[in-house]
Design a protein that fits this description.
81 residues, mainly beta
Length: 81
């Protein structure tokens, strides 16, 4: 109790998702060889995010820049003390 902790890694399981940010890190669904005139495919699967910073009560914020479809099936977080 009272010790600083860090959430070092977050694995987010998503289905039918177009946009998502975890702790400020954006899920990028386009590649350099994609045709940008087309809508990107919906993301499905597990995606890994690495976070920084220590806190007494660390949290993970899941946000979006634009109001697009997103379904989060679950989260897995690694906490370091």
């Amino acid at each position: 109790m009272g010790l600083k902790k860090k959430i070092g890694r977050v694995v987010v399981s998503v289905i039918d998702t177009r946009s998502l940010k975890v702790g400020g890190n954006e899920l990028i669904l386009t590649g350099v060889d994609d045709d940008f005139s087309l809508i990107p495919d919906l993301a499905e699967g597990d995606y890994e995010f690495f976070l920084t910073g220590w806190s007494i009560d660390p949290t993970v914020a899941i946000t979006q820049t634009y109001p697009l479809h997103a379904t989060v099936r679950g989260l897995y977080m690694e906490v370091m003390a």
